[in-house]
Write a structure and sequence with these properties.
Blueprint lengths: L6 E4 L3 H12 L4 E4 L3 H9 L8 E2 L3 H6 L6 E4 L5 H11 L7 E4 L5 H12 L4 E8 L1 H7 L2 E6 L4 H11 L14 E2 L2 H30 L4 H11 L7 H11 L22 H12 L4 H14 L1 H10 L11 H37 L5 H7 L11 H10 L10 H9 L1 H14 L4 H13 L6 H12 L33
Parallel strand pairs: 1-2, 1-4, 2-3, 4-5, 5-6, 7-8
Antiparallel strand pairs: 6-7
């Protein structure tokens, strides 16, 4: 009898194919399946030619070709497609077999699937996988969560194919039970939205505000990547600005329509933050910025109606260089806020669902392979190692130093963008959040007075203990009966 496979992969789009090849490179015999057999054939005759990868023409064939406990990785579209495969596989698998969902599923769906399959003795893992097609091929960051019984069985496989940080540690570790893995991946993607928007705002400030060329800006981003801003997204931004189309010799970036797409994970992050009462302002603004960008035709009409004109910054070459350095410092400070807000949301989720997330380990998992990998993730890991329960990452010594040291530049960039008519929603949101978070006295007492005036919603007093609520008959006609208390 031929040797059975050690892992099955369902879904042979680019991510699925590359993960198959990655597993093969690490000595695993992989069984590949796709709903369309021709896709399997083309894969075996093309990228998988000469490998030990074997195809399966049905789910039954896939299951029969795998060793027990069977390990099957789903790389298919989130939602109904995942449910369809989970339901069909549950009829074929045995107790102790494992299904791993490697797509961008909603963490609440993962919770449901973990519970449903556990009743049948099947173990379900929701694994966030980040790194794009290159990461899938050479080593992604993997964030597995779900049924803890599955981890000992899948640990070696997932850590073998994951990226390695500079110290050799695999960028894959168990996140937590239930939907923890997919939740952390969702937050990762939200931070990714924020990072991309911040970089785009910095680029537009240089392009439209400072009138720099693509080649000049590419050089600036390359130099920035040698500073605290060292990250994958900064690196590829320099490459993007350098890229010219072969036929025309023109920079490709200038021929790309300014309407950004999205698949939903950024929106999920913002919605979850609203549900949990976490001020995820920067990431939410990044999502809305994509929504505005999608209104291309309306924006063109509005620009004409309002006679929109961006006034460039004036100054000699030394002054322009000074603005570029201030922009770098503003971008770094804003980027810190993006990560800090993401960790605030994960902290709240961990407490809500009893996940006991290890923030040091999460930062380490993101150090290589993933889209938001950056140099200061090691500083984040160190911050949480020193103070695991720190409520706001920006309060840790290294990050506090960066925020305070770059504050003046940060404010000048935001003010100048408003003066010259440049939209800068994410960077402005970042500094406004910090101003609010570090303000001991906010105007919310006026809001509470208004709520109590028109709705008898009550308020707390500064001269009384927290938790005592009061109502005033402001107009003399409202009476003494209050409506409800509020949650703060």
């Amino acid at each position: 009898m031929r040797e059975k496979g050690e892992a099955g992969v369902i879904g042979l789009a680019v991510m699925g194919q590359n993960l198959c090849l990655n597993m093969n490179d690490h000595g695993y015999k992989v069984i590949a399946f796709n709903r369309t057999w021709s896709t399997v054939e083309n894969f075996l005759k093309g990228p998988a030619k000469g490998t030990a990868i074997v195809g399966a023409d049905s789910l039954t064939s896939l299951v029969n070709k795998l060793k027990r406990p069977r390990k099957i990785l789903l790389m298919v579209r989130a939602g109904e497609v995942v449910d369809t495969f989970v339901n069909n596989l549950s009829l074929l698998l045995d107790e102790g077999d494992i299904i791993i969902d490697g797509g961008n599923s909603n963490y609440e769906d993962t919770v449901r699937r973990v519970d449903m399959l556990e009743k049948k003795g099947i173990l379900f893992v929701g694994a966030g996988i980040s790194g794009g097609e290159e990461g899938a091929r050479r080593g992604p960051s993997i964030m597995p969560g779900g049924n803890p019984k599955a981890w000992p069985e899948v640990k070696e496989l997932l850590q073998d194919i994951s990226a390695r940080a500079e110290d050799g540690e695999p960028c894959c570790d168990w996140v937590g039970p239930g939907g923890a893995g997919h939740f952390v991946k969702m937050v990762h993607n939200g931070i990714e939205y924020g990072d991309m928007q911040l970089i785009s705002e910095a680029w537009q400030f240089m392009r439209d505000g400072l009138k720099l060329t693509n080649d000049e800006m590419a050089d600036i981003f390359r130099k920035w990547n040698e500073t605290e801003l060292d990250s994958y997204l900064i690196e590829i931004t320099a490459d993007i600005l350098n890229y010219r189309e072969k036929e025309s010799g023109e920079h490709l970036i200038d021929n790309i329509l300014d309407a950004a797409g999205q698949k939903g994970t950024g929106k999920w992050t913002g919605m979850d933050a609203l549900d949990k009462g976490i001020p995820l302002t920067l990431i939410t603004e990044a999502v809305f910025a994509r929504c505005i960008s999608a209104l291309k035709e309306e924006r063109v009409d509005a620009a004409r109606i309002f006679e929109k004109k961006i006034e460039p910054v004036t100054g000699d070459s030394d002054q322009i260089k000074a603005w570029v350095e201030m922009l770098r410092e503003a971008l770094l400070a804003s980027k810190i806020i993006s990560y800090a807000q993401g960790f605030m949301l994960m902290r709240e989720a961990s407490e809500t669902y009893n996940w006991n997330l290890n923030y040091t380990q999460l930062a380490k998992v993101w150090r290589a392979g993933c889209i938001i990998r950056s140099a200061f993730l090691s500083d984040i890991a160190e911050a949480f190692t020193s103070e695991p329960d720190i409520p706001f990452l920006g309060s840790a010594p290294w990050f506090r130093k960066q925020l305070l040291g770059n504050m003046d530049s940060w404010r000048k960039i935001v003010v100048k963008s408003v003066e010259i008519g440049l939209p800068m929603p994410a960077m402005t949101s970042a500094i406004t959040f910090l101003d609010g978070y570090t303000c001991a006295s906010l105007p919310a007492n006026m809001i509470q007075a208004q709520r109590d005036f028109f709705g008898a919603h009550t308020f707390e007093r500064v001269d009384k203990p927290r938790g005592e609520f009061f109502h005033t008959d402001w107009s003399g006609h409202g009476g003494k009966t209050s409506s409800t208390t509020y949650e703060a």
